[in-house]
Amino acid sequence: MTAQILDGAALSKRLRAEFKVRADELALQGHRPGLAVILVGENPASQVYVRNKIKACHEAGMISFDFPFPADVAPAIVLQKIAELNHDPAVHGILVQLPLPPQFDEAEVLAAIRPEKDVDGFHAANVGALMQGDPRFIPCTPYGVMKLLAETGVDLNGKEAVVIGRSNIVGKPMAMLLLHAGCTVTVCHSRTKDLNAHTRRADILVAAIGKPKFVTADMVKPGALVIDVGINRLPAEAGGGLCGDVDFEAVKPIAGAITPVPGGVGPMTIAMLLANTLTSAERFAEGTVK
Ligand code: NDP
Asked: What ipTM did this prediction achieve?
């Protein structure tokens, strides 16, 4: 048996073409979707992510507003910019690229974004709405994972799902979405005892750890749907390039389906950011949000 490869690059391309049609329709009504992106400092990975997000935005017929700040910027300046963007009618989504430098209180920055424009879904009001099963914006990475799982056609009801990682950005919202989809969910993390005993039970295994090739073949139940969220840059002596949290070549023969890195969850994250921006613009255009 060899796993179905869940091609996030292809699915994302398909979705982005659909988004362009919707964005162009909105533009005809005078509401071209707009995404404001705030990047503080010069973290190379963040710069790449932001560049990719801006490019995808333009290709999907949306406008991006780019706000780079130096690493030593005073938090008050960034908060002031967010306040302006909250009121700017051309901006339907505001994204602050994380992580922020140490002078920032991340929670304070996320709380300053108007929840109706919080397309990352990290504002406490949006986290709460997600938890209650009535989300305003679903965080992009777990949202993308749910789309990839839907591609398998597998009914998630009653399935054992194991998420490795409990971050606010990936692990926790991922667990919540799987729970709402009817899975029995276990969330594992660095304090989990006998991790393999948990992962081997998983019909759906999501790895969001940040450790290259951490998930090995012996941790995977035959036929499991394996989702690799990790993006790790390998050192030059290991050939460079990107690799996930899953040992792809070893797990592929066992899994029922698996996402590659790159080309799996990464492109879906960007697609779902566009989806959220578009949804936000549609709400403003319809007047359901003012
Ligand atoms: P965090 O570092 O915030 O979280 C990592 C999680 O993994 C923590 O909950 C941690 O546990 C857990 N963990 C660490 N070591 C172990 C271990 N030995 N056993 C079990 N659990 C462990 O990372 P993020 O959630 O932000 O990101 C995870 C990965 O996903 C990274 O590689 C990141 O680059 C990637 N990523 C990819 C995206 C995409 O679009 N594909 C988007 C966002 C992130 P504890 O809480 O106990 O410390």
From this structure: 0.99
